[in-house]
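Good morning C.,

I know you're traveling, so I'll keep this short. The sequence:
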Amino acid sequence: MFARSVARIARPAAASIKARGFATASRATAAAGSRMAAFATAGAVAAGAASYAYFQNVQSPIHADAKPIAGVKGGANERTFIAVKPDGVQRGLVGKIINRFEERGYKLVGLKAVVPSKDLAEQHYADLKGRPFFGGLVDYMTNGKAPVIAMVWEGKDVIRQGRSMIGATNPLEAGPGSIRGQYCISVGRNIIHGSDSYESAEKEIGLWFGKAGELIEWEAANAQWIFSDN
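The tokens, ready to paste straight into the viewer:
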């Protein structure tokens, strides 16, 4: 009788202890779960930040804004402004012109297709403002019937060599191996423009590629086979 009474008393006590133990274990498990979740969240945030930083570094271009906009005059990184005019674009000559500069060994560091504003065209051709054809030239460059393909090329003596590759302003006076000598016959439709001096290159590159990051610094894999002073 006494033993049965003790057993009846012991069962609720054991159940109570068991319940307290279960509650304690549940709280511990919950706390551990919270800690694991916090660690997982922190890890995910860190991994996300690392991934973002990685892709930013991979996808973002290296901007060439530290050097003079036209490079160093006479140096291996001298730059010139070259533009294929609307007539050259309409005639499908953009690729052929780019190919000429690439095959020569020059490096393309800026490229855009743009319909220039009247203000931009007037600034670009400011030295021709007093000429009777000035108004027609500005309209031709800005009317949107075809864009201008604006480019910046880099390499040794590229300003002078670029002008030589382009040929005389009047295509009828341009050498047969030049771009104008091969592809056009009229002054008013001479397909291409190139800076004629370092000062012109500074001005024109600044006008067309004046925003930060529009010129890209990169290393050509074949540079060692193009440049050498030995």
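Safe travels,
E.
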